[in-house]
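User: Fold this one for me? It's Membrane protein.
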Amino acid sequence: MQYDGLAWLGGALATLVTLLAVRLLWRRGWLAGWLRGNLALGLLALAALLGLLVKALLAYAPLPESNRPLVTLSFQALAPQQYQVALLEGTRERQAILQGDLWQLDVRMLRMKGLAELIGLESGYRLERLAARYMAIEQQALQNQADLLEDAPLDFWHLLRLPQRSLWLLDATPLRSGQLPMADGAVYVVSLSAAGLLAQPLNPAAQRAVRLWTLKE
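Assistant: Here's what I get for Membrane protein.
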């Protein structure tokens, strides 16, 4: 999705609505000051809502090219069953600390459809959560996670996910990768496939960890 262009459009609309509201407030000789004031305040509220919506949309990144992953995860052991994780999205890198044996990634996907798809708007995604759990039954209550969402004053995701809600322009689709083992020096990539998120080992350390984990199951 051309989120920068959409953000500029939303910002321009918010500015236009704000200017119209200010003009109505200062205009004299209109039917009734009370109606004028309420209309202007309503327009200002609409402008504020548009601004918050634009800020929320900017948190979503366009999908990478088909041969590139959404994110690369690199694990470094800090202590037994404790890892520092570097998440690389394009040129952006974030850090998280996880405790456990297995990791799993949740992603929010906005899929364009209908008119939005016809006019060239592209689907976008946002990393939501990186979770970890222990393999031992007695430790599974100690599951932990790293929230990857940045604070936003308006989070429209849950509104889009309400039951029986069908939108003409887009679908809000939660995606979750399969679970894979954490290991010191392991590097994984997460890509988008027809079936959803596909997590794969990228280097020998990750391949060895997956092989040993498979033998234990």
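One thing worth pointing out: The radius of gyration is 23 Å.
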